[in-house]
Amino acid sequence: MSVKKLVYCAMCVALAEVTGLIKIYQFPFGGSVTLCSMLFIVLPGWFYGWKWGTLCGLVYGVLQFLTQPYFLSVPQFILDYILAFSIMGVAGLVSEKKNGLLIGYVIAVAGRWLVATFAGLMWFAAGSTAWEGWSPLPYSMAYNGAYIFAEAAVTVIILIMPPVRKALTRVKAACY
Fold first, then answer.
1. What are the residues facing 23 on neighbouring strands?
2. 168 with 101: CB under 8 angstroms?
3. What is the per-residue pLDDT across 98-125, written as a single tens digit (0 to 9) for each?
């Protein structure tokens, strides 16, 4: 563990926290499209591997709970705040592959969506209802997918821009 790694990771978590507060759209029952906050949680994994990415995701999840707390049950809290962001560290598993950041980001977002979908099922266990004619699982998949994939689509478009790719590659090189 080096001071440089800690500083880069702390900056990523701080950027994720700040951009997580910039809500482009807030959904009525939780979840929002933010200004690319998930990208900043994926970056430590891309920089330093899945362990560092998972740790930064965990720290971010705790910060999310401290700054914007809302939970119905302990299992839902663990899924929504701890696991949903910690799982984004899996992006580090493909960090050395060609287009590793983009591939890792997509994998991490899919992991977050799966966890958020199961957390949504906790809402139903607590007495919430789905849209008319929808059962809990498809509703949770659609609801959580709406905000998670909307933000992911914007972020992917940004990530495939050559100047952004070049800049992030330079940042990664500076991390070591």
1. 34
2. yes
3. 999 999 999 999 999 999 999 988 877 6
